[in-house]
Amino acid sequence: MIAALSNAQHPHFHQWNHYGPPEAVSQSSTVSNSPTSTPSVVVAELDSSPNPSSVVASSASSSTVDTAPSATVSGTSSSSGATSSSSLTPNGKKAGVAGFPQIQITNKAALGQYAPNISWYSDYWPNTTDFTSGGKTVKGIGMLWGNGDLNQTDPTAPIGTAAQDDTNRYNAFVDLPTSPAPEYMMGFYEPDWPAPYSSNMNPSTAAAAWTSTLGKLDKTLIGSPSMAKQKDEDWLTPFMEALGVTEPPWDYTCIHTNKNSSQGVKEDVGYYWTKYGKPIWVSEFACVNDQSTDWSTCDQDVINTFIPEVVDFFENNASVIAYGYSNGAGLGTVWPLIDKSTGALTPSGTCYLDVLQGKVPEGTACTN
User: Fold this and answer.
1) Which residue, 148, 264, 280, 315, shows the most beta carbons closer than 10 Å to its own?
2) Is the pLDDT of residue 8 over 50?
């Protein structure tokens, strides 16, 4: 049995309404228990510079949180061997759209509205193509979602086409051309949690998959696996131990933050920044009441304040190299960017666009 955890640790539990209470969820064969001893892996505690080469070894149990480094992120040679000439941020612009399958095909008009103000988008696939609209190109950021072997007999997951999607995505990764190598690739999608749309792997399984796949992309900027449990994660350190490394083998740390306040977002960013010593790519953010009993999404008034505040934080915090508005499954009807019935931007989608266009004065809320 999985021990009862805080609602903040179950970002997809209520999203998909798939399980009973946390304590009723069966322990999956692919879910790792928390380590019983202090991990021996060395992590990094940073000074005021977010340059990932400027690190000092510290205890993995460090709880220091630095949410506002002031320097500019610079390019670096990474543990994967990849090099960025001037910045890890795609095209020098942080903003993006995340977790939107086939947006470049089914929602061209909406993505086209964002194109002048974002630099990247993701859709869970490793072969995500660039999108061009009005002379503006939005970079498609690939992701190796899982190891192609999502457990189809596990009662906690998956549902629908999730298992087949995992297989298809993995095969698409295997079929990627070796030249030119992808410029960016994100690591596994929430391997730390057995939700219907999380990759659900224990650290040892993930380490083996990483070594044979992402670990071979020596000319690609690699992102860490993204955690479902946010700042309460207990998976990445055992993953590093399984790999036999003492420093993170990725170029930037991909994080998911699902909070209802900018302070909660800052705490998530600060945790990963301090613990793993790599620039932060917020691969998904959403406004969610993650401490409520039903893990509900925020109402429009809260969202209208949340978006300007978190975007301002992301843009002005040098540890954050990219951020993407999450349009993944289970986020209700108010948060999603696009109205499914009309294809038009929702009030929340309009708020995000207005903020990116500089139409919302600093310190104020959206007024749509």
Assistant:
1) 280
2) no
